[in-house]
Design a protein that fits this description.
- It is built from 7 helices and 2 strands; from the N terminus they run ααβαβαααα.
- The protein has 281 residues and is an all-alpha fold.
- The chain has a domain of 128 residues.
- The longest helix is centred in the first third of the chain and has 16 residues.
- It is globular and about 60 Å long.
Length: 281
C-alpha cells in the first residue's frame, strides 16, 4: 500500500487549531490574561525576560515529550508524599496523567524554563518556590487526593460521595475515570479565579462530589455571618464575605489543608482568624 504524505497546508491547519486551543479555553477565555502566561506580556508576578511566545513553556508542535500530546515540559521524576486517611476508601498512588504535568511546574523541583525540546534553550532558572502562591511542593499529604479512580463502586462503598454519573460537565474526570488536578482546575481559563472550572460559592463545586447528609440545612451552609478581619484575604475564595458563601472553605482547604481555626460561636465570625496556611493558586 502506498503512503501519501500529508499536505503542508493540512499540517499547518492542525498546528493552528492546537495553538488556538492553547490560547483560548472554553467560553472564549484566554491564557494570555492569566498567570500561566509566563512571557513578558503576562499579567502575573513571574515573567521570563525576553520571551514573547506563550504556549512554548508547556507545549510544542514537534518532538514532544511522549508522556502527553505536544507536551514540552520535562518530567522531574519526583516521588511525592501522597494523601492518606483512615477513612479513605480510594486507593491513592503516585500522581499520574495531567496531575503530573501540573506538578512539573508546581512542585518547584525544576525550572519553569526547563522545556523538553527547544532548538534555542529558554534562558533562566526561575522556578516556583515556597514563597509563591502556586507552590504545591512534593508533600501532597495535606492536599486533596488526586489520580484515583472515581468509580460507581467507590461511591457505593463511601456514601459521602456522589455517584460519578452525577458529576456536572464542568468537572471532567480523565479518560480513565480518575480525579486529577484538571478535574477542578482549567489551566487555560482563570475567569473564576484560581483557575477553577466552576464557581464554588456556597460550596457548589465541593458538593458536586461530596454528599454530606444534612449539609444543606446546616448552620454552616446557611449562616449569613460576615467573615471579617484582615486575615480574610488568605481564604481561597477571597471575594466571598459570609460563612454560607464560603461554605466548605470556611474550615477546609483543597491545598495545604491545615484546618482554619476560628471562634465562630458568638454570632459572628471572629475578626482575628488564625489561618495557618497560605493562599494557593
Amino acid at each position: 500500500m502506498r503512503n501519501y504524505p500529508l499536505p503542508s497546508s493540512l499540517i499547518l491547519l492542525c498546528v493552528l487549531t492546537l495553538a488556538s486551543q492553547c490560547l483560548y479555553a472554553q467560553g472564549g477565555a484566554s491564557i494570555v490574561n492569566t498567570k500561566h502566561n509566563l512571557s513578558v506580556t503576562g499579567p502575573g508576578p513571574i515573567k521570563i525576560a525576553g520571551e514573547t511566545e506563550i504556549c512554548k513553556f508547556c507545549h510544542t508542535p514537534h518532538s514532544a515529550n511522549p508522556i502527553a500530546p505536544l507536551w514540552n515540559r520535562r518530567n522531574p521524576g519526583t516521588y511525592y508524599e501522597t494523601y492518606s486517611s483512615e477513612t479513605m476508601q480510594a486507593t491513592i498512588g503516585q500522581p499520574t496523567g495531567t496531575s503530573r504535568l501540573c506538578l512539573s511546574c508546581h512542585d518547584g523541583t525544576i525550572a519553569l524554563t526547563q522545556t523538553y525540546r527547544r532548538s534555542k534553550p529558554i534562558p533562566g532558572t526561575i522556578r516556583i518556590t515556597a514563597a509563591d502562591a502556586g507552590h504545591v511542593g512534593t508533600t501532597l499529604s495535606d492536599d486533596h487526593p488526586i489520580s484515583f479512580g472515581y468509580t460507581t463502586a467507590l461511591a457505593a462503598r463511601n456514601k459521602q460521595i456522589r455517584n460519578p454519573t452525577m458529576l456536572p460537565a464542568q468537572l471532567p474526570l480523565d479518560h480513565q475515570g480518575r480525579v486529577q488536578c484538571t478535574t477542578c482546575h482549567d489551566p487555560h481559563n482563570d475567569n473564576l479565579g484560581h483557575f477553577l472550572r466552576m464557581d464554588n460559592r456556597s460550596g457548589r463545586m465541593c458538593t458536586s462530589c461530596h454528599n454530606h447528609e444534612g449539609w444543606n440545612s446546616s448552620s454552616h451552609a446557611t449562616a449569613a455571618a460576615s467573615v471579617s478581619g484582615a486575615q480574610r484575604d488568605k481564604w481561597d475564595n477571597v471575594s466571598y464575605k459570609s460563612v454560607r458563601d464560603l461554605a466548605c472553605a470556611s474550615c477546609h482547604r483543597q491545598e495545604d489543608s491545615i484546618l482554619s481555626l476560628c471562634n465562630c460561636f458568638n454570632g459572628s465570625v471572629y475578626s482575628d482568624l488564625l489561618i495557618v496556611s497560605r493562599l494557593s493558586t
